[in-house]
Amino acid sequence: MRAPVQVRLERLQKLIDRIAFESEKGAVIVVEGQRDQDSLRELGITGRVVCVQSSRRNAIEFAEELRDVQDVIVLTDFDRQGVFLAKRLQRVFNSQKVPADLAIWRELRRLARSDIRSIEELPRYQQRLSNLQDPRRANSSIMYE
């Protein structure tokens, strides 16, 4: 059984706040593409966010570029390819003695389940939960012709 909308929204906000906090402390957030990065910016994440796909390098070369980083938060998509990439990046970073955190990614994945499949969908998911929590907000966005 799924948690009520309000609980899911609160959990999502806590995870977003945690990402923002860790990012401000210096953790680098690794995402798959530019739209994922843009979505995190839309959610208020101001720290360093790097895209794996735009680097055009394999996971080992990509991780070597970040070997001087203290912490990495991996936020790949939740599809099969994203799951594979997240685990691969974690192994590569850890082998280079760079702590790679998948805990937030796992919590987001568990929270969103089948509702979203990518990081770029997080702002819309947050808005959808907000609208479900307060139906008046959902109705206020409807335009009448």
Describe the structure.
- The protein has 145 residues and is an alpha/beta fold.
- The chain has a single domain, classed as 3-Layer(aba) Sandwich (Dna Topoisomerase Vi A Subunit, Chain: A, domain 2), CATH 3.40.1360.10.
- The protein has eight helices and four strands.
- Strands 2-1-3-4 form a four-stranded parallel β-sheet, with helices on both faces.
- The protein is elongated and about 50 Å long.
**CATH fold-level assignment:** Dna Topoisomerase Vi A Subunit, Chain: A, domain 2
Q: How many discrete structural domains? A: 1
Whole-angstrom Rg:
16 Å
Sequence of secondary-structure elements? HEHEHHEHEHHH
Strand residues, percent: 5-15%
The overall average pLDDT, rounded, is 88
Strand order of the largest sheet: 2-1-3-4
Top CATH class: Alpha Beta
Largest sheet: 4 strands, parallel
Q: Do you know the CATH architecture?
A: 3-Layer(aba) Sandwich
Helix content class: 55-70%
Oligomeric description of these chains: single chain
Shape: elongated
The N- to C-terminal Cα distance equals 39 Å
Unreliable spans: 138-145
